[in-house]
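So, can you check these C-alpha cells?
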Amino acid sequence: MKQTARPARINLAVHGGAGTIERSKMTLEREQEYRGGIARALRAGREILDRGGSSLDAVEAAVRVMEDDPDFNAGKGSVFTSAGTNEMDAAIMDGKTLSAGTVACLEHVRNPIVLARTVMEKSKHVMMIGPGAEEFAKRNGIELVDTKYFFTERRWDELQKSKAAEKSAAEGGKKFIISEAESHGTVGAVARDAQGNLAAATSTGGTTNKLPGRVGDSPIVGAGTYANNATCAVSCTGDGEFFIRAVVAHQVSALMELRGMSLAEAAEHALADAQKLGGKGGLIAVDKDGNVTLPFNTSGMYRGYLGEDGKFVIEIYK
C-alpha cells in the first residue's frame, strides 16, 4: 500500500525585544498588554500557516501586527532619535531562495516590514534607505503617514530621560539609570511552513537618543536577520552594534552547518560571542525540522511560540 507523506511540521515564534524587564517593576495591566500583543502577532502568523500559507506571509503578518502596536519599539511605538524624530529599520528573508529585502532610516512608512518585502520582490536591490526608499514605497502603493502618527508620550518621555542622563554624565552630576527596555527594543518573527520553507523578519525603531542616520543590526542580513532552508531562520534583538560585529544571525546557521551543532547549541554560542564583545540581547530561531529556541542574556525578553500541542506559549521573564 502506498503511504502518503505526512504534512511537514509548521512552527512560529515571535519576539518583542529583550532588556531589563523585571516582574517587580511591571504592573499586571502592563504585562497583560504585552502578552496580548505577542498573542495577536502569533495568531496572525498561525492563521496563515494553518491554511497552508507561506512562512514569508506568516512572518510579515506577525511583525506587521507588532508594528501597529505602540507597546513595541517598531512602527507606531518607535523610539526617538536625538533630534526628536523617528527612524525605522526592517528586514525580511526567504530561506528557500536566500532572497532578502531590507530598509533603513524610514520616517513615513507605516509598516516598514511591508516595504522590506517589496524591496525583495519588486526591486533588484537588497537594501534601500531614507528618502529613496520612501519614494520607492510611494511608487508601489505602500502606505505613508505623517510623522505625527509615530509619536507616543511614553517614547518621548524616554528620550527626555535619556537626554537628562547624558547631560548629567557630561557635567559629572547625578547618575541616571536608563534600562535597556527604555533605550532599545525590536520585534521579529521566524517561521517554518508546511512546505518546509523557513523565513525571518525583524523590525525596529532603533535606540532611544540615537544619532540620526544610525542603523543597527535588524536590517543587516546575517547580523540581526537570517534564513536558510538548509539550517534555520533567526531574528535578533539587543545591542545592535555588537550583534553586527559578531554576525549573530548568520553565526547560528554557520555553526549548525559547519560544526553540526543543534539549533539550541548554535544559538547559545552565537549569543555568547556577542556578549563577549559587550552586547546583551536575545534571539528567536526555528530550524529546518521545526525546532524552536529563544535564548537571551538579559533579565527578560517578550517572546512567544507555537507549542507542540498547538497552543501559544508566551513568556516575558527568565
